[in-house]
Structure formats: C-alpha cells, structure tokens
Amino acid sequence: MPLGKVLVIDLNDKAEYQRLLSGKPQTYGMRSGRVYLQPGEECGQHSTEQREEILVFLSGTGVLLIDEKESLPIGEGKVSYIPPNTVHNIKNTGSGPLTYIYCVAGVNDQSAQKGQT
C-alpha cells in the first residue's frame, strides 16, 4: 500500500509557468513544473545544488548551457538529466515557444552531495 497520495494533474494551455508539484506535504520532496519560454527567453542560470533534475521537452528548440562552458541542443522529443551541483541554463533559440517539464528531487548520496562521482 503506497504511503503517499497518487496525483493526476492537468496541464493548462496558458503560455506561462505552471507549478505541478510543490514538494512537502504534496510529495516527499519532489518538485515539478512546466516552463514556457518565448523565443530568445531563458530560464536563468542556476545550480541543482543538492538535487538532481530531469527535463522533458514538449515543444520548440533551444540549448542547455552547462556552466557557461558547454552547449547542448535540446527540444521537442528530448529528455535531459542534470546531476547535483551543476550550474545550468535553458535558452530558447527557436522561432516558437520552448516548453518543458522539470522534475527536481533531493539527493541522499554523500558522494553526490560533495560533487564527487
């Protein structure tokens, strides 16, 4: 028997950020949302810190910038995993909206918390 509550959340059709999971008490710690970026927009550089993150791209094209040193192509039909302690940014380089779902969860592994592999 599951300890938590099973959720089904509808994605809205608005051209804006939509929070999906907000962490405790809704989940055990996972957070999630849908991001909507207009052409030329970016989410802003940030670090995963003590969390790992997965990005599922629903539409558009862009780049995943890692620590301002590496640029990876992303877009519809792609999924990206970002490990703990990774500085990153998402930029829409296409002519239409770039939308994606992110899921972030805390890491309990001591080596990951220290940035070791």
Outline:
Helix content is 3%, strand content 46%. The protein has one helix spanning 110-113; strands at residues 18-22, 31-37, 46-47, 51-59, 61-66, 70-75, 79-82, 87-92, 98-106. The strands form two sheets. Strands 1-2-9-4-7 form a five-stranded antiparallel beta sheet, with no helix packed on it. A four-stranded antiparallel beta sheet has the order 3-8-5-6, with no helix packed on it.
Average pLDDT? 90
Q: Could you give the distance between the termini?
A: 34 Å
Overall outline: flat
CATH level 3 topology: Jelly Rolls
List the helices and strands in order.
EEEEEEEEEH
Q: From the helix content, strand content and strand pairing, which structural class follows?
A: mainly beta
Q: What portion of the residues fall into strands of 2 or more residues?
A: over 45%
> What is the C-alpha radius of gyration, as a whole number of Å?
15 Å
CATH architecture descriptor: Sandwich
Tell me the domain tally. Answer: 1
- CATH top level is Mainly Beta
Task: Describe the 3D structure.
This protein is mainly β and 117 residues long. The model has no long low-confidence stretch (mean pLDDT 90). The longest helix is centred in the C-terminal third of the chain and has 4 residues, at 110-113. Helix content is 3%, strand content 46%. It has one domain (18-108): Jelly Rolls.
What key attributes describe this structure?
about 120 residues, mainly beta, Jelly Rolls, 5-stranded antiparallel β-sheet
Describe how the helices and strands are arranged.
Blueprint: E1 18-22, E2 31-37, E3 46-47, E4 51-59, E5 61-66, E6 70-75, E7 79-82, E8 87-92, E9 98-106, H1 110-113
Antiparallel strand pairs: 1-2, 2-9, 3-8, 4-7, 4-9, 5-6, 5-8
